[in-house]
Amino acid sequence: MHPNRAHTSRRNFLKSSAAFSALTILPSYIALGNKSSTGLAPSEKVNLAVIGIGNQGGNDLRALFGSGHCNVVALCDIDLQGAHTQASQADFPDAPAFTDFRVMFDKMAGQIDAVLIATPDHSHFAATMLALSLGKHVYVEKPLAHTFGQTERLIRMAAKHPKLVTQMGNQGHSGANYFQFKAWREAGIIKDITRITAHMNKPRRWHGWGNSTTAYPSEPLPAGINWEQWMDTVAQPHPYSQKLHPQEWRSWYDYGSGCFGDWGPHILDTCHRFLELGLPTKVSALHRDGVNHSDLIYPDASTIRFDFPERGPDLPACEVTWQDGVKNKPQLESEFSEPVTNKETGEVSRGPTTLKQPGKVLYSKELTFKGGSHGSPLQIVPREKYKDMRDQLPKFSQKNSNHYANFLLACKGEEAARSPFSVSGPLTQVFNLGVLSQRFGGELDFDIHKKQITNNKVANALLDPAPRKGWEAFYAL
Fold first, then answer.
1. Global pTM?
2. pLDDT of residue 16
3. Fold category of 3-173+407-418 in CATH
4. Would you report the helix, strand and coil content of the chain in percent, each value rounded to 5?
């Protein structure tokens, strides 16, 4: 293809996102006639564009910029007049601002090395696919994508572009727990894990909505909001309301990933990676409370169990149980609880301990480990067991780049990204399956080779639902 014609085709795609079948996607340095973004010298700063600049996106933006490794060259948000986006715009007044990421790329692709994508869950996919096709490094908030099929496509797209850096925003994956888990696993301290319990029991936005929510609410659209763009690929668009934008979207099956998709990436990431869990053969909804019978929002509480098959000599079959909901709290089994001395009688006893802070417990044949969320390190429980073996525990690095600096340093070729799509993609697919279990209840049998749910046709169709008209092109990139 002649370079000028490639450039024209790219612009047509960005403007219309239609008539894609005849278009060949080329790296940005060919399609746009610019230097490849993978050729940064270590001394250079990464030119960063940001899609989704309010709330978590604003926090990510400030953290990336605060690392000292990037310039902010473009901002994009569907609501540039919203109160939640004003701080980011004020912090970077010289960065051009857009309400459509396609227009941003059309006008500025040649000036962008990397992209932060921090939009609601349902809209990660299209922007990420386009950014990768244009040769841009990408940092995407968790969970990576809203559906199993979208995540599968992102994994494949990243594999096609091995020189591009990808990172999911599970920030704890660059914290102490990452380096500890890795060191303890390599030293054989963590092995033969047969059960894991994980939980998050804080109140969520949708708690109490219950069956009073029978339809999507509708409110007048405030000036300045590009609602068509907010809807993104979702096949059944819904009217604007404050129960969708700017922060309530996580409550709804069509747009968010509930508590599990929100907190699971911060709790189960190291377990999934270093125990090589892969994909489960069965997901079971053991408990659901406050189920919305209109099939719109997540339950108030749920307990779901994943059955992972044996994966190696010291990687036996493993049950992973997730609990959310304010009162749906797990307990640490009594033999692993700390001894309690009765002040009056002097008697020492143990009893089940209710786990309060978000976290996890790993049960192996010989040891039990208790940990929190994000980068919190594991503890061996009970404490007397830890005291017996603390001198033989391997040391691990305590001075490392944080998740944001790690991404930008990887863009410059100085480090390897710690949560690339090859790692965070399969992890996300566990969440994609888990939220379907929360939605449908019962048991979902999953064929890990064909990547299909074999006993529920409706749930299986939701692994990879078709996008709405006009957004199909992103699925063909």
1. 0.92
2. 57
3. Rossmann fold (3.40.50)
4. 35, 20, 45
